[in-house]
Design goal:
Layout (H helix, E strand, L loop, with lengths): L1 H21 L2 H49 L6
C-alpha cells in the first residue's frame, strides 16, 4: 500500500513539473484530474482492505466467543 501512495506522489510530482515547464493551464487541469483519480483509487483500495480486515477480526471474535461459551457450559473446545 505504501508503494502505491509513493508511486502516486512521484507521478503527481512529475506531472506538476511537466505542467509548470510547459506553462499550460489546461495541463494543470489534467494533472488535477489525475490526482483526483489517484486519490479515488487509493481511497477505494483502503476501504476494501479495511472492510476485509474488519470481517476477519469479526470472524475471529465470533470464534473466540463460541469457544468461550462452550468452555463455560462444559462442552469440548472447538479448534
Amino acid at each position: 500500500m505504501g508503494r502505491l501512495i509513493s508511486g502516486a506522489l512521484w507521478g503527481l510530482g512529475a506531472g506538476l513539473v511537466l505542467t509548470v515547464s510547459r506553462g499550460g493551464g489546461e495541463g494543470l487541469r489534467s494533472v488535477a484530474k489525475g490526482v483526483v483519480k489517484t486519490y479515488i483509487a487509493v481511497a477505494d483500495r483502503v476501504q476494501e482492505t479495511t472492510a476485509e480486515a474488519r470481517e476477519s477480526l469479526e470472524d475471529l471474535a465470533a470464534e473466540v466467543r463460541a469457544e468461550r461459551d462452550g468452555a463455560e457450559t462444559g462442552s469440548p473446545k472447538a479448534g
